[in-house]
Amino acid sequence: MNIAAVSLAIFIIVLPAILARRIYFTKELSKSFTDKNTLQEIFSSLFLAGFIHSFWITIVENRGYKIDFDIILKLLFNARAIDSYDSISENIYSIIKYFSSITVISVIFSYLLRNIIRYFKIDRKTNLFRYDNNWYYLFSGEVLDITEYNSDDTISSNDINQRLVDVLTKSNSEEIIYRGTLVDYQLDKNNSVEYIVLSYPRKKVNGVNKTITSNYFVIPYDEILNINLKYISTESESSENTENDNPQTIEDTENLTENDNSQTIEDTETL
Q: For residue 141, what pLDDT is reported?
């Protein structure tokens, strides 16, 4: 019974921090949350929980409420020393309100903080807020917003409409180049690429172009020798009197050749 009470108490105390971190590391950047080992997760959640509760306890006590730290410490470290749980039972509704409010506030604050950091590109301007998912920044084109990799302020990730890749693979002692638009990728538990997904792929075998009759093509990363990544920018023509309605592209994706000299935002990124 004591073990169950202690476990439940620890879980409830740490829950706001767990949910806050889960909300902060969502969508394409969730690998920063899921790829850490269990020990890292425990320490990160405990540290954040301590900070959250310290802040919220200050707010609560300033509003006239009293926190019984004695019974909390006994419950966590020496539950047998608690003679009676009457004080917990008598204040159960206040306890529920405390943990409900701190959980809701933590989730809302985490959600707003994540969106502010992403909207103003703070994670790309400083390492302090940068997510631990370098592959995302590279594959999405947001690497162009990081000054360490791109010193040209006139070009940013906002200019990227398409990510074109040439993938060199080796199968049965034969080298094959696959070409297509990068639409998705998966990371493994070590934060390394497990596979990439190309849309409308083509391949070149021994210098001969061949069409692949599929909309999407999955390439395991263990078969990849290197990747040539090109960021494509498309600008729609605004003039109503133009002869063609085709968008202007920095790179013509339909006529790729090895000697292509058209202008690209980023020519090569070899992994």
A: 93
